[in-house]
Each structure stands twice: as C-alpha cells, then as structure tokens.
UniProtKB/TrEMBL annotation:
MF-aspect GO terms: electron transfer activity; heme binding; metal ion binding
Keyword Chloroplast attached: no
Protein name: Thiol oxidoreductase
SUPFAM superfamilies linked to this entry: Cytochrome c (SSF46626)
InterPro entries in alphabetical order: Cyt_c-like_dom, Cyt_c-like_dom_sf, DHOR
Pfam family, one: DHOR
Coiled coil regions in record: none
Ranges where the Cytochrome c domain occurs: 45-93
Length: 93
C-alpha cells in the first residue's frame, strides 16, 4: 500500500509470505493473460452519448481510452496489442 492508500494500510496483514511462490506464479500468469472485455454496441446512441460525456468531463485525463501494450511483454501473444481499457493505469502500480 502506498502512503495515500489509508484504508489499504489499515487492512489486516496476511503475514509473510501471504501466498506461496507457486500460487503467486499461477495468479500472475492468470492476470497477465486475462483479456480485456470486447467492446459491445459501439454504434449504440446511448454508448456514443456516454463516450461524449466521458470526454467532456475530462475523464480521459486519467482514464485513457486506448493503450498499446509494450513490446517486452512476458508472453509474446501480449506484446503490441491495442486495448481499450478506459483505465487509470498510472494509479495501478
């Protein structure tokens, strides 16, 4: 937890180590290979209105609409992929 994450710092600690190296490796592999959900109803008027509101409210300043994965991905299939997570990736270190 970072110093800014007050609730996280107050949460109970699971001890050392919280999980075995094997379990950690399996969770890491799973999360690295979990796909971003497919875009749905991209031409729906309601979806387009939401997209405009998202931009007008300047949500895009933190929640980037599109992102290209790095070329040095742990799995070759994950390298240089264009995804649209609308995520605040800078906050997720």
């Amino acid at each position: 937890c970072s110093a800014a994450q007050v609730e996280c710092r107050r949460a109970p600690d699971g001890g050392e180590p919280e999980v075995s190296d094997n379990i950690f490796a399996q969770v890491l592999f799973y999360s690295r290979n979990l796909a971003v959900p497919a875009r749905r109803k991209v031409d729906d008027p309601q979806v387009l209105a939401g997209k405009r509101l998202f931009a007008q409210a300047n949500c895009v300043a933190c929640h980037v609409p599109a992102f290209t994965t790095g070329s040095d991905a742990s799995e070759p299939e994950l390298a240089n992929q264009r995804i649209r997570p609308y995520s605040d990736l800078l906050l997720h270190d």
